[in-house]
Design goal:
This protein is of the alpha/beta class. It folds into two domains: 3-40 and 183-356, Jelly Rolls (Sandwich); 53-178 and 360-499, Rossmann fold (3-Layer(aba) Sandwich). Helix content is 22%, strand content 29%. It has twelve helices and 27 strands. The strands form six sheets. An eight-stranded mixed sheet has the order 3-2-1-4-22-23-27-25, sandwiched between helices. Strands 10-13-20-15-16-18-19 form a seven-stranded antiparallel sheet. A hairpin with an 8-residue loop joins β15 (264-270) and β16. α2 (11-20) packs across α3 (25-35), α4 crosses α10 (447-458) and α6 (156-174) runs parallel beside α9 (398-410). It starts with a helix and ends with a helix. The protein binds NADP nicotinamide-adenine-dinucleotide phosphate (NAP). NADP nicotinamide-adenine-dinucleotide phosphate binds next to α4, α6 and β24.
């Protein structure tokens, strides 16, 4: 750089860039000291966590409230469908959205209920209470669990069948498929953009180009001025490192929805935390003033170091993605020029960035009950069956209605998991579980463990489209379940049907 050029070069911006990305931690610390700014957040998009809201129906129930607690502990965004918002708030706290509705009243299940929802966990059930006058002196036991002579408060036909049918119809109408994973949704931004994305322009190499990214209506706008002065010629915006890194195993690539200015841009991913290491890059063309979807298969990414291709670089590691970058550069690769490049002002709007082509995960998890197929089944010895089977008729056909509800879920076209617990307890959980199919097992299982099972199913592709019973292994000590093996051993319902 000549002295004249050096005077045009903005060292302040250069240091700002390095500080924002914590390349010079010492300066970053000093800067925070003087400005009083908090430690910048690392962008947390890692692991397998879903983006979007998890809707919990029956959130005030024994299982539902435990599902909510666990979801919140693991930083999911939660919306609870409750019949009484005041009671819901008192029970569930402040850190979630409440939506007042009743699954048996279709008009209450509005599109707003489903806004941004990526999965639904349904823990609703007909209210059952002790028969009036039934007292502890008449306590009865089934498989070691104390129960009173029960009676239903609401109609099972209305809650277990019509209600589930209404909910399923609403979900099917509004939910988006999970084979896509939304990483950045600038249409409904929930992140602080300034905390996640920052500009990296040619000022880092001595240039004078300048860019920024900001939210506008329904999109993020990457804009500025790109200049070729001082041997410069690129602008970019990049995320701070994800902590932990993103794991996109099982997905085919990234999809961007963009509106550009006709220029050719670069999409860049990094698989190491270093500031200036290898990047994996793919160029894409925009159409002036038109919204288009750009798919970038992971296999099309080229390893690059400072615009030079690296034929011997390690293959792209889809399980360790540290940052995402968008760039406009005068250069393509290895000295070739970008044929669509125009210096001066530019503008690229980005509506969303998705991973696409992933294995679907369950989007509707329903808590049903063991025993739903047993009332009226030939060969059943009622003496040995749990109270709900024995008393199905007195309880308004509760299990028969649950089975009809299950059928609505299986026929819905949504990816689902139907969990049929044996008798539910208030025990702390943590015991080994056993899964079964065919509806023949008896036993008990804690509500805590069923709540954990729901969270595990949420992130497990092999939990899709299965119906199974679950109980605790008798006399087992407290050992964590091997969830992956439990789900993997289940047969999809379609296969079970064909085998019959
Ligand atoms: N008890 C057992 O041994 C056993 C065994 C196997 C399976 N199950 C099943 O497991 C599931 C969960 O059991 P649980 O003990 O957690 O049930 P629970 O405590 O009785 O909770 C039921 C939940 O459903 C909600 N609900 C009922 N009708 C509704 C409607 N029309 N619209 C919206 N929400 C409604 C209730 O809301 P409110 O708070 O407003 O009433 C409550 O939040 C149930 O389906 C149950 O039948 C139970």
């Amino acid at each position: 750089m000549t002295d004249k050029n050096r005077s045009q070069w903005d060292i302040g911006r250069f240091l700002d860039t390095l500080t924002y990305f914590e390349v010079i931690p010492f300066i970053s610390c000093l800067k925070r000291l003087f400005t009083g700014r908090a430690n910048p957040k690392q962008v947390n998009r890692g692991g397998e966590r879903r983006v979007g809201v998890i809707l919990v129906a029956g959130a005030t129930g024994g299982v539902g409230k435990r599902v909510v607690r666990r979801l919140l502990e693991r930083n999911y965004k939660v919306r609870a469908l409750v019949r009484d918002a005041k009671r819901g708030r008192e029970m569930l706290g402040e850190n979630l959205e409440l939506f007042e509705a009743d699954i048996s009243i279709p008009e209450t299940l509005t599109p707003e209920l489903m806004f941004n929802v990526s999965a639904v966990i349904c823990c609703t059930g007909t209210r059952v209470q002790p028969v009036e006058g039934d007292t502890p002196t008449r306590e009865k036991y089934y498989q070691g669990i104390k129960f009173y002579m029960p009676e239903v408060v609401d109609s099972p036909e209305v809650v277990e069948y019509q209600g589930i049918k209404n909910l399923v119809q609403t979900v099917a109408k509004h939910i988006k498929p999970t084979s896509d994973r939304l990483l950045f949704d600038f249409k409904n931004p929930s992140d602080d953009l300034k905390e996640s994305w920052g500009a990296v322009d040619d000022v880092v190499m001595g240039g004078v180009s300048e860019s920024s990214i900001r939210l506008i209506d329904n999109a993020a706008l990457f804009t500025g001025n790109v200049s070729t002065q001082n041997s410069g010629g690129f602008v970019s915006v990049r995320t701070r490192n994800f902590e932990p890194p993103l794991n996109l195993a099982g997905y085919d690539g990234m999809e961007l929805r963009v509106k550009g200015d006709g220029q050719r841009y670069k999409f860049i991913l990094r698989t190491e935390a270093r500031w200036d290491g290898v990047s994996y890059c793919c160029s894409f063309d925009t159409e002036k003033d038109s919204w288009i979807n750009i798919r970038i298969p992971f296999e099309s990414l080229t390893p690059i170091f400072r615009a030079k291709t690296l034929p011997d670089a390690p293959p792209f590691d889809v399980q360790n993605i540290y940052s995402v970058q968008l760039m406009l550069s005068k250069f393509e690769y290895d000295g070739a020029l970008n044929p669509k490049f125009e210096p001066g002002n530019f503008a690229l709007q980005v509506e969303s960035i998705n991973a696409y082509g992933g294995a679907p995960k369950p989007q509707l998890i329903m808590i049903s009950s063991a025993g739903v197929t047993r009332p009226g089944r030939p060969g059943i010895n009622l003496e040995e069956e749990p109270p709900a089977v024995r008393m199905n008729d007195q309880l308004g056909g509760i299990l028969t209605c649950k089975l009809k509800g299950e059928e609505c879920v299986r026929d819905s076209g949504i990816s689902y998991t139907i969990v049929r617990p044996c008798a539910l307890t208030e025990e702390p959980g943590g015991k080994a579980l056993s899964f079964a199919q065919g509806d023949n097992i008896r036993g008990q299982v804690s509500r805590e463990e069923i709540a954990e099972l729901c969270l595990q199913a949420l992130e497990e592709p092999t939990a899709c489209n299965v119906t199974f019973e679950v109980k605790e292994v008798e006399n087992s000590s407290a050992i964590a379940s091997d969830w992956k093996s439990l789900f993997a051993a289940l047969k999809p319902d379609q296969e079970m049907e064909q085998a019959r």
